[in-house]
Specification:
18% strand, five-stranded mixed sheet, homodimer, Transcription Regulator spoIIAA, five-stranded antiparallel sheet, Jelly Rolls, elongated, 22 strands, alpha+beta, Beta-lactamase
Chain lengths: 611, 611
C-alpha cells in the first residue's frame, strides 16, 4: 500500500512526465505482434525488498517478457543442475556481438553467456520434465514464483515467434551440430519461444527483480525462490552481459545489474534494496528501451543506487558495551551489591547488531578479542543481529575456539528467537560449546545473574544452607532487638515449590515478603505477549513491599525460581505493632526509601548505559 | 596492532602456505630489472577500512607499482579535472586487447580505458604543474597520500623503463598524432615511467586499496584523499577493465574490483570493508600474478566478499520506537503524570540507526509517514545514524515538507554531535524547518519534555503564575492541617536565578527541597566527560530528599532551569518536629516510598522500552 505522502511516488511521477517527452527510438517489428505496441505506452515500477510498490504511468499494460526471461531461466538452471554443469553449457563472458549473434566461443563451443539468445536456448534445454507438457508447466511455474502470481503465455506472440524465429532456429541447429544441444531443437525452441512469450506487466517485472534484490526471496509471497549463491551468479552475469554493448559505459553511468527485452521492458536490480521495471516499447539501435535506459540512468544518479555508491557500514556492528557495573535485574542485599561492585570489571557485555559479514564480523571479533582477557566473562548478546553469513559464522567459531586458550569465559546469548540465526546457533552448539566449555544462553540477564551468583558463591556470601535471620535483613536495619522480637511475633514462614506462583498480578496486596532462602522472579504480562521476566529477588530481599502503604493491587506475578522459604508480614499486623512502637514503621519505611533509592540509582545507571 | 588471536591472521598464514606451493607462471622480463625478482617471494596483506592490518609472508619486500598505479592516477585526473574533461581523454570500455595494445577507439580516437597503457599515459598528461619537477612532486605526493607515507622512486627500474619503453613511446606518439596527447610525449612518458617505478611494499598497496574501500579516506592518516564520486568511478573502471581479459569470468569467480601490475602485485578493493594486496612475481599468460589471482579467488570465496554476496540490510534502520508512555526524565507530580498518561499516544519517538541511503531511508520514511497522523508529535532521534548520503538527505527533506501538510509536528533530534551529519543538519535547518515549522533539537529528552509541558499548559495544569501551596505537594499528602501548620513553621523559602547551582555533588546533605515554582535539572559528572543532564524536577517535585535519611553526600548537581522558588526543609528541623508529631515523618516517608516506587516503575518501563 503506497502512502499518500511519498517523495518516491512524487519522484516517479515527475520522471514519467520528463521521459514521456522523449519519443526517440523505434518499436521492434521483427515479429508482427510486437509492432502493434503503442509507442507512447510508458510505465515505471519500483518494488522494495519488503514488498512496497511504487508506480507511475501505464504499469498495468501487458507485454511479453522476451529477453528479460534470461536471468531467471539461468537461475533455474543453476538451481537445478549446479554451477559446474551449467558452466559447461554456457560461459559468462560479455561479447561485443548483438543479442542474436550466432557466434560461439571457439575454444569451448559454448555460447558466450546466457544473456544472448544462443546461451538462453542452451539454458532452456535444461528445464526438467519427461514430456513437453511437464517442461512447460515447470517453466511457467518457475517464473510465476518470481512474479508472485500465476503467469500465462501470450499465444499470438508465441505463434508469431514460432513462425518467424528462423535465426534462433539457425542458432539451435548450430548448437545441435556442435553437440551443445542434445534434445530435438524444435522441442527446445518451442519451450524457449513460450518462455519469451510469457505475459507480464510492469509490476510483475518489478517484483521479479525485487526477488533477486531480496537475495531470492519473493517480497510478496515471502517464498524463497532462488538460493543465495545462485542469486549472486545471476546478478553477476546480468551486470557484465545484461545490456548488450556498452557494458563499460553502463557500469560507469548506471552501475547496477539490468536486463532489457525487445518488447520494450527493462528490469534492474539494486541488491538489498529494490527491483525496478520500466516498460516503453521504442528501442535504441542496440535493442534497449530508450526510456528504460534513461530511467535507469536517472534513478541511479538521483537515488545514489550505483553499486559503488558506498553503503556498507561495518562500524555500527557493536551496538553498545557495558560492564558488570550494570547489574542483573536480581534484587540483592546492599552487602551483596557492594561486594559485586568490586567485580564489575570482570564482566563485559557486548551487543552486536545488524548484518554480520566479513567486514562487520572482523570489526566486532577484533573488539571481542581485545576485551577477552584472563579472568573475564564476556556475554555476546546477539539479539539485534539481522543475519550472519557463512563467513561470519566461520570467523565467530574460529575466534571462540582460539579464545578458549585464554582463561576467560564466553557466553553467547539471545540467538533463539531469530530464525535467521539458526545456522550460527547450530554452529555454536555443535562446534564451539562442546570443545571450548563456552556456553549459549537464551537470556542475557540470566547470564549476568549467573556471573554474579558465581562470585558470591566463591566468596561464600550466599548461604543456601540456611535461612537468613531477621537481624541480617536490610529492610530491618536499625531495629532494636526489642523491635525485632516484637516483629518476629507477627511473621509467618511460607514454603514454595520451584515454579509455584507466590503473588498474582492484580490481587489485593496484604502481605509483604522477604526471601529467607532461595530466589524468586518477577514476571509481567504485556498485552497478550508471552510473559516477560523483569527481575528477580534473592536471599534477604523484600518483594510485595508496596503492601505496606495501604494496599493497592499487585503489579506483577512473583514465581519461585527454586524451592523457596519466605517470611511474610501481614500489613495489618505491622500496623498494629506500630501503634505501640512507632519507630518500627519509620525504620522500615526509611530502609525502604534507601533500598528503592538504591534500585532507582541502578535503574538510572542502566538507562544511561543503554543509551 | 594485530591481536594475538585472529582467525584472519591464521587464515592468511594457511593461504600463504597453500599458494606458496603453486610455482606456475613466469617473471616479467621485458625490462631487465623486473627479471631480477625472486619467484618465491610472496606476501599477502589485508587492511581494513579502520586501519587494522593483517599480513602473511614477505610483506616488506619492495617492488615497483607498475600498472597498479593506474586506478590512482585516474582518480587524480577525475579529482583535478572532473569527469567530463577526463572522459574526453579516455573511455571506460573494457577491451579484449592486451594491456600494451596500441589500438584506440575508432570513433573517438580515445584509448578504450585508463587501465591500458594508452589510457594511463593520456591520464598522466593531466598531472598539473608548471615544470617537470613540479609535476613529479605533484604525482609522488598524490600516491604518498594513498599510502600514508612518503613514497620514492626506484631509479634503476625507471631508467630501464625509459631505455626500453619503445612500445609505450609508439603509443604516445600515436596519440600525439591524433591530437589526444598535447604535450611533449617524452615529457609525459618520463612522468609515466617514474609513476610506474614508484617503490612500494605489500602493506603500502593494501593501505592504498583500503583508502578506496573507505570511500577515499586513508584509514591510517584519516585524510580524505579522493572524493566519494571519484572513488565510485575509479572502482567501476577497475571492476570492468582492471584484470585485462576475462572480465566476465573475474566478475563471476571473484566479483570485486582489482588491478594487477607486471611486477607481480595485485590489489583488490572490497568497498566498505577492506583493501587487499598480494605480491608474487610469477605471472600468467595475460600478465596477472598467478598467486595473486588465486589469492583473490580464495579470499572472495572463503570470506564471501563477492559484490553480490548480499550484505545490504535496510531493515535494521529503525532501532526502536516508543510512545509518550515513556515519559521525559522530568520529575512531575502524580496528578501531572496521570494526566499526561492519557496523551502518551500523541507522541512517538522513532530512533534511526546505521547508514542512511535510498533503501534504508525509504524504509524509515515509510514508517514515519505511517505514524505522522493528525495531532501527533513525532521525534526523529538520529543519534545512532552513521551517515546519510545525498539521496537520504533529499528524501528526508521532501518527506518532511510533504508531511507539513498534515496537522502533525516533527522534531529531529541528536544530530549535533556527529560530523558526518553536518549536511543533513544544514538541510534541515535551512530547507525544512523554516518553511514547515518543524524543529530540530539537540536532545530527545528535552523534546519529550516540551511535548509534555505543552499538554500541561494547554490544560492549565501548570501554573507558573503562582507558588504551589504545601497542601498540594505530593510528598505531604495525607498530613492533617495541624501537621501542615507545624511543618510550615520549619520551612525556608529560597529563590534561585536561572543557571544557579542549588546543590553541589559531594556536599553534605542537610536540606531537602520541593520546587515551589519553575523547574530544576539534575546533572551528573561522568569521569571527566562533559556533564550529563539525567533528569529534571518540576513544580511540586522534591529533590535532595535522601537528606531525610541521615545525611550522606549529595549524589548530583542540581541547577535551576529558570528563575526558581524552592521550599527548603532542614532535616534537623523535621526530626525535631517528629518527636512530638511522629505521623509527620511516617507520612512523608510513606509518600516518598510511593513517589520512588513510581519513579522506579517509570525507570523500569524505560529500560524495557530501551531494550
Amino acid at each position: 500500500m503506497a502512502s499518500a505522502v511519498s517523495p518516491i511516488s512524487d519522484y516517479l511521477a515527475t520522471l514519467y512526465k520528463t521521459l514521456h517527452n522523449n519519443t526517440q527510438g523505434e518499436i521492434a517489428t521483427y515479429i508482427p505482434e510486437l509492432g502493434l505496441a503503442d509507442p507512447s505506452s510508458f510505465g515505471i515500477c519500483i518494488a522494495t525488498v519488503d514488498g512496497q510498490v511504487y508506480t507511475a504511468g501505464d504499469v498495468d499494460i501487458r507485454f511479453t517478457i522476451q529477453s528479460m526471461s534470461k536471468p531467471f531461466i539461468y537461475g533455474y538452471a543453476l538451481q537445478q543442475h549446479g554451477q559446474e554443469k551449467v558452466q559447461k553449457k554456457v560461459g559468462v563472458e560479455p561479447t561485443g556481438e548483438s543479442f542474436n549473434s550466432i557466434v560461439l566461443d571457439e575454444l569451448t563451443n559454448r555460447p558466450f553467456n546466457p544473456m544472448v539468445n544462443a546461451g538462453a536456448i542452451a539454458v532452456t534445454e535444461l528445464v526438467e520434465g519427461d514430456t513437453p507438457e511437464r517442461r512447460l508447466t515447470e517453466m511457467v511455474d518457475w517464473f510465476s514464483r518470481f512474479a508472485g502470481r500465476e503467469l500465462d503465455i501470450d499465444e499470438s506472440v508465441f505463434r508469431s515467434e514460432q513462425a518467424t524465429g528462423h535465426r534462433n532456429r539457425a542458432i539451435a541447429y548450430m548448437m545441435l551440430n556442435t553437440g551443445m544441444l542434445e534434445r530435438d531443437p524444435e522441442d527446445v525452441l518451442d519451450l524457449y519461444f513460450r518462455q519469451c512469450s510469457l505475459s507480464v506487466d510492469c509490476k510483475d517485472m518489478a517484483v521479479m527483480a525485487a526477488t533477486l534484490a531480496a537475495q531470492g526471496v519473493n517480497p510478496l509471497t515471502r517464498e524463497r525462490v532462488l538460493a543465495v549463491d545462485n542469486v549472486r551468479d545471476v546478478l553477476t552475469v546480468m551486470s557484465t552481459c545484461g545490456m548488450y554493448d556498452y557494458a563499460g559505459q553502463w557500469a560507469y553511468d548506471v552501475g547496477f545489474p539490468a536486463k532489457s527485452g525487445v518488447s520494450g521492458g527493462v528490469i534492474a536490480v539494486i541488491p538489498g534494496q529494490l527491483g525496478v521495471a520500466v516498460y516503453s516499447p521504442p528501442l535504441d539501435r542496440v535493442g534497449n528501451s530508450v526510456r528504460g535506459v534513461e530511467a535507469c540512468k536517472k534513478l541511479s544518479h538521483d537515488f545514489s543506487l550505483h553499486l559503488f555508491d558506498g553503503r556498507t557500514d561495518v562500524h555500527s556492528v557493536i551496538r553498545r558495551e557495558y560492564t558488570g557495573a550494570v547489574p542483573s535485574k536480581r534484587v540483592r542485599s546492599a552487602a551483596e551489591r557492594e561486594f559485586l561492585a568490586k567485580f564489575g570489571e570482570r564482566l563485559n557485555v557486548i551487543e552486536v547488531q545488524g548484518a554480520l559479514f566479513f567486514g562487520s564480523a572482523e570489526n566486532f571479533l577484533r573488539r571481542l578479542t581485545e576485551i577477552a582477557q584472563d579472568g573475564k566473562t564476556i556475554v555476546v548478546d546477539m539479539k539485534r543481529v539481522a543475519y550472519a553469513d557463512r563467513t561470519a559464522i566461520e570467523l565467530i567459531c574460529q575466534t571462540a575456539r582460539a579464545l578458549s586458550g585464554r582463561n576467560c569465559e564466553l557466553i553467547f546469548t539471545e540467538l533463539s528467537e531469530n530464525p535467521e540465526l539458526e545456522r550460527l546457533r547450530r554452529a555454536l552448539d555443535e562446534r564451539v560449546c562442546p570443545e571450548t566449555g563456552f556456553s549459549r544462553l537464551d537470556d542475557t540477564d540470566i547470564a549476568i545473574e549467573q556471573f554474579e551468583d558465581a562470585i558470591l558463591e566463591e566468596a561464600e556470601m550466599r548461604r543456601n544452607d540456611r535461612i537468613i535471620p531477621l537481624d541480617e535483613i536490610d529492610i530491618f536495619n536499625g531495629l532494636s532487638s526489642d523491635d525485632l522480637r516484637t516483629l518476629s511475633a507477627a511473621v509467618t514462614t511460607f514454603q514454595f515449590d520451584a515454579g509455584q506462583k507466590i503473588i498474582n498480578e492484580g490481587d489485593d496486596a496484604r502481605i509483604f515478603f522477604v526471601v529467607g532462602r532461595g530466589s524468586v522472579s518477577i514476571w509481567v504480562n504485556v498485552d497478550g505477549r508471552r510473559p516477560r521476566r523483569i527481575g528477580s529477588v534473592g536471599q534477604g530481599g523484600p518483594f510485595g513491599e508496596m503492601a505496606l502503604l495501604d494496599g493497592g493491587k499487585r503489579s506483577a506475578d512473583v514465581i519461585a525460581d527454586v524451592p523457596v522459604i519466605c517470611y511474610g508480614f501481614s500489613v495489618d499486623g505491622i500496623r498494629e505493632i506500630s501503634v505501640d512502637s512507632p519507630t518500627i514503621m519509620t525504620t522500615i519505611l526509611g530502609n525502604l526509601v534507601r533500598i528503592m533509592s538504591d534500585r532507582l540509582r541502578l535503574a538510572n545507571d542502566e538507562i544511561r548505559a543503554l543509551q
